[in-house]
Amino acid sequence: MPCKLLNLCEYETHKLVRIQSVRLGSLKWTFNGVILMFICIMMLWNKEYQEHDYVVSSVTAKVKGVALTSLPDVGDIVWDVVDYSGPSQGKNSFFVVTNVIVTKKQRQGKCPEVPPYGKVCRTDEDCVKGFWDQHSHGVQTGACVKFDVTRKTCEVSAWCPIESKKKPPKPALLASAENFTVLIKNNIRFPNFNFMRRNILPEMTESYLKRCQFNRHTDSSCPIFRLGDIVKEAKENFLEMAVEGGVIGIQIKWDCNLDGFLRNCLPKYSFRRLDEKESNRTLYPGLNFRFARYQTEKGVEERTLFKAFGIRFDVMVFGKAGKFSIIQLIIFIGSTLSYYTLTTVFIDWLIGTSCYSKEARQNYSEKKVESVQDRKQCILCVSFVDENHIRVVKKSHKKSLQQVKPISVHPCKDDTEHLSAMVGVLQKGNNIIDKPPQVLPRPNRPAWCLCGCCLPSTHPQEQLCCRQSIGRCITTSSLFEQLVLSRPLLEAVLLYREPLSDLTEGEQRIAALRNCSYRQYINWRIGAPPRESIPVMPSCSVWRIREEYPS
């Protein structure tokens, strides 16, 4: 269609088919009601009418608690927050020491390397001076020295004596750390709404914070947590976890509603273990680090080495705030209108199933669907005397029309002109039960002919017989003579259409009678052809008409 300026002033709309049916109408409104209920529930449940913003937060943690441990060869040691907090663990994390391996009085010197990190040797030739690797405790001196009664290892320059214990003590030395407490301060902000809040709520007083402790059932808003309760909430055992250490996640979720009287913005706490303890049992288990305390004795620097095991707590903050927005509401309503097409799809499917009769389905399909054929494809319709329906086929340039498979099948529909012709026959008093005319079979009958009266043709679209099985030709029927070839009837039909037409003898009259005979046959055997299809007459009928009314 060429683009024209006037096309901008046109309006196009869809064509609707209205079916008068109480059953289908009730089904439609029932489905629409269910869809509307679903949309409303989803809108309220997910707050689709709100504009949302995500949280921006900061976290600080303050651990409190004191523990007393008695270490072999060291004595009693008091651990306060400076000792057991360890080095900084990064943003939003804190660490608590729960177990320790102590190696005391280490000095710079030479000593045998500890297996399996040290190479077992027999002579000095087995050791390489200056050699070290990532598992070594020092640099080899090139000497092979006695490690114990049965083994020798390469001597190294290191802090001696070298740490020899591998496994942490059980039970954990700082098991009492489960009674330590931590105050978590979380400040949040939703930039789009300029809304700020912290987990220490406005109604919390100083006296309340001094005595409160988090409990999921009795006090779920308190920001002070007992470490043992945190591990228990993560479904772990603190005494077992304290031996080798691990990682616990503290999750703070802010789900805020900032709409008027529904305003609600409170933190919810949850806890889980982050490291995979099952695989850690055999390969690099738990969490540990080393630190040392240095002193000088008789002018010589010494240190006490601590291999500390502990639990790292990672505080993770998630949050989303919502506030009513008319734009979001309109967008949600617009996006859900497409759900109503499910009703149409379901009812169309229901009509197309066996719940409805074949005639009802055919009638609905013809009213609803208007087929437009491609101009490059020619759709033909044919009728056989031994079938009570019409075949719709595609034109083929290779196969004979007799052999082409149909793309659809339709019932015959009577044409009003055909009925008027029948009335004309009865008015003239013609006897249609006369003895059928004798039509002799034609010589050189083609292979596709099953009635014996067709003539050969080189065009596939003309290779059509009046039958699908071997039998009597339609041209031998009495009705064929009366309805298709009868000159008085054809003249009456021509005058019926054009009352003032000139039917004088001549080639023009013969041509008019021949064309009228073609139409009579089509009206008789095909009736009103399916839309966008061209009716085709069988070869035997065409040649019989041409013999009666030659060109």
Automatic annotation (TrEMBL):
It is found in: Cell membrane; Membrane. InterPro entries: P2RX7_C, P2X7_purinoceptor, P2X_extracellular_dom_sf, P2X_purnocptor, P2X_receptor, P2X_RECEPTOR_CS. It catalyses: Ca(2+)(in) = Ca(2+)(out). Keywords: Cell membrane, Disulfide bond, Glycoprotein, Ion channel, Ion transport, Ligand-gated ion channel, Membrane, Receptor, Transmembrane, Transmembrane helix, Transport. One of its GO terms (molecular function) is purinergic nucleotide receptor activity. It comes from the Eukaryota. Residues 381-551 form the P2X purinoreceptor 7 intracellular domain. It is a multi-pass membrane protein. GO terms for biological process: calcium ion transmembrane transport; response to ATP. One of its GO terms (cellular component) is plasma membrane. NCBIfam families: P2X. PANTHER family: P2X PURINOCEPTOR, P2X PURINOCEPTOR 7. Belongs to the P2X receptor family. Receptor for ATP that acts as a ligand-gated ion channel. This is P2X purinoceptor. It comes from Oncorhynchus mykiss (Rainbow trout).
